[in-house]
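Fold these two proteins, one after the other.
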Amino acid sequence: MDSSANESAILVIDDNSSHGSGHRLAAIDVNSAQNELQFHSFIPSTTQTTTTNTKTSSVYSSATFDDNNTDEEDILLGQSPDKSSKYSSVGFWRLEYFGQYFDVTTNEVLQRILWSSIPTLGSKKGNYVERHLQSGPDLYGPVWISITLVFATAICGNVANYVKTLGDGLNATHEEWHYDYTKVGLAASTIFTYVLAVPVCLWFLFWFRGCVANYSLLETICIYGYSLSIYVPISILWVINIRLIQLILLSIGAILSGSVLVLTFAPVVQSDPSKTIKTSYLILIIIILIHAFLAFTFLQYFF
């Protein structure tokens, strides 16, 4: 048979219809069928599959099983990491143990500084501790606020003294003005004594009286440390050598930050089992008076 000729085949189809049984004949062109049904060999690319699987596995492993970025994700989601678990294996005699008291975000510090001078009476979210110290008290803010206030008071106090000297016309008598370096040491000893001694005494008083809602010692120190933040801009504005303006600034700072202290410690005083109305009000009045007396001492001595 000639290979170039058209080849055909007869296909018998059994037609079982309702009208009867029979056979149908169909002619199929073999060459055209061979053209339509051609087999192609495909060699799978192992490199591409391996690369895809590698990339896929790396993506899933980093998204599902990587625990190294847990703390960063918690911070981005507004959740505070568990600090106690991070430092539980470190002894308190090691320097790393105190790292938990400085493990705080910038946003937390800014929020604590801002709301330490804004009293919120009747807030449904609670007082200053309940709203801003839930993630844990820190020493980072109180330490840097105290150091900043020391230098701001000492430097601005000397600047105010220099301005006052120029205003009095004492330079006309060839009297030289000198910087008083002792103000730095005095300001440092006064501020750090206030930030440490007053909270310790207050915490011991609440503990001794058996107050149920007493804060921890670290929380009390943290509250007092942040309460001094309002005196930093006030000490800079005290350079204005007008006594009335200085007293107004003193009153504003003492009332605002002192009110936050009173509202914060009011639940503790009210949880005293042997409380009386006079004792409760007396303790709260002493808290705000000591806070205002510190600022008045700065104004009187440094300015």
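Now the second one:
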Amino acid sequence: MNQSFKIIQARLPGEQELQEITIDPEGIIESIDPWHDNSETHSHYTVIDLQGDYLSLGGIDLQINGGLGLAFTDLKEPEDLAPICKFLGEQGIDGFLPTIITTSTVKIRRSLAQIAAYRKNQLPDSAQILGVHLEGPFLNPEKRGAHPQTHLLPLTLTQVESLIEDYQDLIKIITLAPELDPRGEVIPYLISRGIIVSLGHSLARGFQALQAFSQGATMITHAFNAMPSLHHRESSLLAEGIVNPLVYCGLIADGQHVCPTMIKVLLQASNYDQGVFLVSDALAPMGLPDGEYPWDNRQIEVKQGTARLIDGTLAGTTLPLLVGVENLVRWKICDLPVAIALATESPRRALSLPGITPGQKARFLRWRWDGLKSRLNWSRIF
């Protein structure tokens, strides 16, 4: 950059006062302070005046299955990942976890190998791969959703060790159904390897979820989907997660996976961005027009951003992560700073990553809500 910048009159999610951010010549956040209208202190900087617009780091997507026709289960070469990383960067994403859904062990390990190789030479101006999310194959068959039953595996220590061998540092999250492990061996093993355990595709009852959380599980995968609903006479996996301050719930805000009213219930009960983060759950056709596309050995049909199997089973979405931010505001579920935080700050906290603080790379998004058109506009800064 070869020069220092000062961003003034910026609104940061969670801050009441306008802020000014100083950025050093290396593009690193040097300081964040309340803004004071004193132009003399800005004379040695290139000044960017946001005029009260919101500012955040880019989005972090912890559950995304592919894009531009690429499914992360079908990787054959490390270079296959470059176009999707570039595309996601253009969609406002700073980092993501390629999510490998249930498929054969051979394909899972092949994809892990390609992702590991690509991460050694990631392009700096693209979205960064932060690790991998394994969504399966240790799922309850009765809540498998669109996951193929033929490739589901029993949740045993032997099966888990065999699958993740050599890739324990790459895998950041594993989604599993805790009721499949009555001996309670797997979750402590994964936690000891630094892998986050997320509960999902599960029929776990409340006491089983409580046990899993006590063993160290800290996430719920796509809340409300592929799990028992909330019920007023009985606890459940989701209910125990909502009331547990140490548990984060992933949320798909596309209007199809969860209706807006239930999103509001979840957010209010979870103290908004303190216990929930947005995910896209986007499938390979993200970035492509509506139509039919191959998915594993089956076909999915994409209409207006929603992907379903030919039999009508909901398979996922093709909407980028930041569309969920716009939806939450447009549906009047929360205000703009909370919606922004759900896609930028909350997933960082869930991964124990720093948020917008000094020492971080200054790769910002500038946000403005157009109330007349009910549209959210954002643009990259740096």
